[in-house]
Design a protein that fits this description.
The complex is a heterodimer of chains A (300) and B (419). Chain A is mostly helical and 300 residues long. Chain A contains 14 helices and no strands. Helix content of chain A is 72%, strand content 0%. In chain A, helix 8 runs antiparallel to helix 11 and helix 11 packs antiparallel against helix 14. In chain A, 30% of the residues are buried. Chain B folds into two domains: 172 residues, Periplasmic binding protein-like II (D-Maltodextrin-Binding Protein, domain 2, 3-Layer(aba) Sandwich), CATH 3.40.190; 200 residues, Periplasmic binding protein-like II (D-Maltodextrin-Binding Protein, domain 2). The longest helix of chain B is centred in the first third of the chain and has 23 residues. Classes of the chains: A mainly alpha (300), B alpha+beta (419).
């Protein structure tokens, strides 16, 4: 064995070492990610309820039930609401802040830190603080301000019409920290001479922004759109922490698919059904990501 | 050499004896959810139990209430878990169905004796002639009122409302709003997620002339005039009379503790918590009656033995369970936790029944009903949704109750279909 190893060329030896080292994370990844994913696929074909020993194969029964489950469609709809309401606002605000921060000559580090702090804070803590801000009178900060201004108090998290947006606000606030940093990196990566050339050609600020900055930020935007979409599709912690007893209420108006999966699996113990939903969510995220990659990368 | 060998042999012998003695000591594990006074009391009981039974060690593990049910369920496929476990009676059907609990040996827990000694509501833990779990204590509901608030609005602080009409009159007096019309001091709390769904289901429905479930508990019967009137009375509290506000100071206990709430309805287990507050001047009374009808809701957390417990561990677990359901344990539980003894002989003693704090709860037990839950969480959600539909979606009380009945019937059907 040793002899054979010695006979290999240096490149081959290096390759073997590289693979040996890569094997560690690979094995870890296979065990922690890939195996459970395939296992979930199998469980989704059974009626396993976690507490009983039986695991009967029911094939596509769970998927058929899913199709007829109104709550599944409602939570899927909510999940998309989070993406559609949240992501564009999130990207726009982050870009505006980053674009203006990029022009700063002083204090950039301070601002960057300030914007980044929420992102570093535990999401559960952030959610609970915001939950308290939204409280009705006499506790809630927002409602106290409204009351001072003589405006009727708002239900925020307690209303099916406002709760989803109320949960999105801190989510956007937190995500901005991350997106601003990435945008700033993208903006710094655009060479200054391009702007000089544009200015000499008589391009005004607006033209520079739309013809130069934004097109050159395309890779950054693609990255943020894709990671952002995935993040919003998987929204859970905020909703769990901000709705009463984590139920995604009132009247399921804030319940995203991931929370429904959690409820089904760990509160109603319908493991098979929950796994089926996980698989559907996986397929949805996969398709959306492939679609985005294709569309956004078109001109390259 | 011989000396060394004999010494070695002696040493081995000693080790062996120590080992044997050690092996004879049985270790069992007890699980319950975390509630400070309950945890402390169980620790105290375990200490005493271990003194009486030096060969048994009890490991006591607690989990946060929010995740307790999940923790229990997920411990099953993992193959770990307790020998003796504390479960809410409404969860028992699920766990018994799954084969998680073993029927209590009739030799030690004779069903006939249990039925003679315990309050009848404990029968909710009996399935197919076998008891699967037994409680140390039971709980019922009572009206808790803030004497200072009563005084502030000119009510007699020592005279709580006796009927629903009086209650409505009082809570209107006790409600305070700011200039913009926002409720800043509610007359009462209206948290369906707390104990209110029990109050609606087992108390109001009966007081307004309905019956919540059929005799065999397999069908919902509150979707009639009694149920509609009961639910209308409840929803009117917020919609028409505006005497309460959902989500006020996050939940009902916190709201009452803050001293801003006139009265609220809660279980006997709260006494321990409320007594810790020095500034809270409160009283406890029986639930208000209506049309001469008194009703109450009783429930309990029961201790069962898991199926995987066998041999010596089983013998030790049985001993521990007997100890937990002894009169002595019940007395201590009442003093420390505030939950009521599960045996009338202990509960109805003069000193308990006339106690200013436990008394109203114990009196309530005499006419209390325990809902035969098959899926407590789902059956509670039904009323939360009905309430939200009326409040937030302006759906009529009748439609909301009908919808609740339909959904709950499905839950019952699913459980009873193969029974």
């Amino acid at each position: 064995m040793r002899n054979r190893f010695n006979k290999l060329s240096i490149q081959q030896k290096q390759a073997i070492w590289a693979y040996a080292f890569l094997l560690v994370p690979l094995v870890f990844y296979l065990l922690i990610r890939i195996y459970p994913a395939f296992n979930a696929l199998y469980i989704s074909l059974t009626d396993w309820d976690i507490i009983s020993a039986d695991k009967n194969l029911v094939l596509f029964e769970n998927y058929a039930k899913l199709y007829q489950d109104r709550l599944f469609w409602k939570t899927l709809g909510n999940t998309f609401k989070y993406v559609i309401y949240g992501l564009p606002v999130n990207l726009l605000l982050s870009f505006l802040v980053a674009y203006n921060l990029n022009k700063l000559r002083r204090g950039l580090g301070l601002y960057r830190t300030l914007y980044f702090i929420p992102y570093m804070t535990s999401l559960v803590a952030v959610s609970w603080v915001w939950r308290w801000l939204y409280q009705p009178l006499p506790l809630g900060f927002f409602n106290n301000i409204l009351s001072l201004l003589g405006i009727a108090e708002q239900p925020f998290l307690l209303s099916p019409n406002q709760a989803l947006q109320a949960i999105l606000a801190p989510t956007i606030w937190v995500q901005m920290g991350f997106q601003i940093i990435i945008f700033l990196a993208g903006l710094k990566g655009i060479p200054a001479y391009l702007y000089e050339a544009a200015a000499i050609d008589g391009a005004n600020n607006r033209q520079q922004l739309f013809r130069l900055t934004i097109p050159l930020l395309r890779p950054t935007i693609i990255f943020l759109v894709i990671t952002g979409t995935i993040r919003y599709l998987r929204i859970f912690t905020q909703v769990y922490s901000m709705s009463f007893q984590g139920d995604g209420g009132p009247l399921n108006s804030t319940k995203p698919l991931v929370l429904y999966i959690y409820n089904s699996a760990f509160q109603r113990f319908e493991m098979g059904y929950a796994s089926a939903m996980t698989i559907v969510l996986f397929v949805i995220i996969l398709l959306i990501t492939l679609f985005q990659l294709k569309v956004l990368n078109k001109n390259d | 050499m011989k000396k060394v060998l004999s010494l070695l042999l002696v040493g081995l012998f000693v080790l062996g004896v120590v080992g044997l003695a050690k092996a004879e000591k049985v270790e069992i594990t007890y699980w319950q959810y975390f509630y400070q006074t309950k945890k402390d009391t169980i620790n105290e009981l375990i200490k005493e139990f271990e003194q009486e039974n030096p060969d048994i060690t009890v490991n006591h593990v607690t989990f946060p209430y929010e995740n307790y049910n999940t923790k229990v369920a997920s411990s099953i496929p993992a193959g770990v878990g307790p020998n003796v476990i504390n479960l809410y009676y409404g969860w028992l059907p699920t766990y018994i169905d799954a084969g998680y609990l073993q029927p209590l040996s009739k030799e030690y827990f004779d069903p006939v004796t249990i039925e003679q000694e315990f309050f009848p509501l404990v029968q909710a833990a009996k399935i197919d002639d076998s008891y699967y779990a037994l409680p140390t204590a039971v709980r019922s509901l009572a009206l808790i009122w803030n004497k200072d608030r009563f005084q502030e609005v000119g009510l007699d602080p020592e005279a709580p409302p006796k009927t629903l009409e009086q209650m409505l009159e009082y809570v209107q007096l006790l409600t305070e709003t700011d200039r913009a019309g926002n409720v800043t001091k509610p007359g009462m709390t209206v948290e369906v997620r707390g104990q209110m769904h029990h109050w609606i289901r087992e108390v109001l429905v009966r007081q307004f002339g309905g019956v919540p479930y059929a005799e065999d508990n397999r069908s919902v019967t509150y979707n009639d005039q009694g149920g509609y009137s009961a639910f209308e009375f409840f929803t009117d509290l917020t919609i028409k009379h505006k005497v309460g506000k959902v989500g006020f100071m996050t939940d009902d206990v916190t709201a009452f503790k803050s001293g801003r709430v006139g009265m609220y309805i809660d279980g006997s287990f709260r006494i321990g918590t409320l007594n810790k507050l020095k500034n809270l001047n409160y009283g406890i009374a029986e639930l208000p009656s209506h049309q001469g009808i008194k009703s109450n809701f009783a429930s309990f957390w029961a201790n069962g033995i898991t199926s995987h417990t066998k041999g010596k561990e089983l013998a030790a677990s049985i001993k521990f369970l007997q100890f937990l359901t002894s009169d002595k344990a019940m007395e201590l539980w009442l003093q420390k936790v505030g939950e009521l003894p599960a045996k009338p002989a202990v509960a109805l003693q003069e000193k308990n029944a006339n106690h200013p704090q436990y008394g109203p709860f114990i009196k309530g037990l005499e006419y209390a009903h325990a809902t035969y839950f098959v899926d407590e969480k789902a059956q509670r959600q039904v009323w939360i949704d009905a309430y939200d539909l009326v409040r937030l979606k302006e759906i009529s009380v009748k439609d909301a109750v009908d919808q609740a009945a339909e959904t709950e019937q499905k839950v019952l059907d699913k459980y009873y279909q193969d029974k």
